[in-house]
Amino acid sequence: MDAWVWWLIAAVGLGIPLVLTAMPEFGMLAVGGVAGAVTAGLGGGMVAQVLVFAVVSTALIVVVRPIARRSRNQAPAMSSGVDALRGRQATVLERVDGQGGRIKLAGEVWSARALDGDAAYEAGRQVDVVEIDGATAVVMG
After folding, report:
1. What residues are paired with 92 via a beta bridge?
2. CB neighbourhood size of 56 (10 A)
3. Contact partners, residue 115, CB within 8 Å, separation at least 6
4. How far apart are CA 127 and CA 116, in angstroms?
5. Cα 61 from Cα 122, distance rounded (Å)
6. For the chain, how are helix, strand and coil distributed in percent, rounded to 5?
7. How far apart are CA 141 and CA 120, in angstroms?
């Protein structure tokens, strides 16, 4: 059997733990195995094949792993649920003041209160949602 076939078998063998464990390092080693297969297919000797495998695998681990870790630690760009309601506009349905009131937010009726306890917003007025406190939207005009 040709050397490039052995390298491809090794790459597949390294890809299996990637799928089972979700450890990206195995994927990077599998890519190194494919690079070794390409080197063998182009006629490179065993030393060249092993060097290409080692260099490609190491380079991927050194370069890609920190980038992946950094992106994994970042907060998602898209908010969902209650977080997605912050900053949206709502329409006052019943007078909203520091004690309470009702607004229409994202097609639903919400209880609301004014951020500034002295402020009051009459029905029909557009207000901005500052935060969601439990089941109450905190708004300001």
Report:
1. 103
2. 20
3. 130, 138, 139, 140
4. 13
5. 60
6. 50, 25, 30
7. 9
Helix or strand holding residue 41 (H, E):
helix 24-41
pLDDT digits (tens, 9 = 90+) for 104-138: 998 899 999 999 888 999 999 999 999 998 889 99
Query: Residue 93 is encoded by which pair of tokens?
Result: 């349905």
Strand spans (E) along 31-125? 89-94, 102-105, 108-114
What the block records as the tokens of 64 is 């890609």
pLDDT of residue 43: 93
- Which H/E stretch holds residue 46? helix 46-73
Q: Please report the pLDDT score of residue 37 as a whole number.
A: 95
Q: Quickly tell me which residue has 């004014």 as its tokens.
A: 114
Confidence of residue 65 (pLDDT cuts 50, 70, 90): confident
Cβ-based neighbours of 131, under 8 Å, separated by 6 or more: 86, 137, 138
